[in-house]
Design a protein that fits this description.
alpha/beta, Rossmann fold, 5-stranded parallel sheet, 5 strands
Length: 132
């Protein structure tokens, strides 16, 4: 049952994200509006890949991607154990839905302060009133 719950949450998150896009509410525009110019991304699964794709042609600088696995990533990649000397972004976006609280705790232990999950981010953007 837990897996079905996760799938439902992931589906709702992606649906909200796509609805935002259809309304002209892009993650990059929201981040720029909040004066967030650089981000770090935790997680290179489905959500992480979609986030990278959305930010590809934006002015948001993706400093690094952190994941537990080794991938051929489009930007600097690092494991959480090696996070001590990383450049600090304006925001770390945690893309996995499962285990968010644990990941957030690990990131805070490594000195990251501004952290937001994808699910929370797309929900905030859905109620954002753009000037477009």
């Amino acid at each position: 049952m837990e897996d079905d719950s996760y799938k439902s949450i992931a589906f709702n998150c992606l649906n909200t994200w796509m609805c935002n896009r259809e309304e002209g509410k892009y993650i990059s525009d929201y981040l720029a509006y909040k004066n967030i110019n650089s981000i770090g991304i935790y997680g290179y699964g489905m959500m992480g890949k979609h986030l990278i794709a959305e930010l590809k042609d934006s002015n948001i600088n993706v400093l690094w991607i952190m994941d537990k696995k080794d991938f051929d990533l489009p930007v600097k990649s690092v494991h959480i154990e090696d996070a001590e000397g990383l450049e600090r972004p304006d925001l770390v976006i945690v893309t996995p839905i499962k285990g968010y609280e644990e990941i957030e705790c690990q990131l805070r232990e490594k000195g990251f302060e501004k952290i937001r999950g994808t699910e929370e981010l797309v929900e905030v953007i859905s109620s954002w009133k753009t000037s477009k």
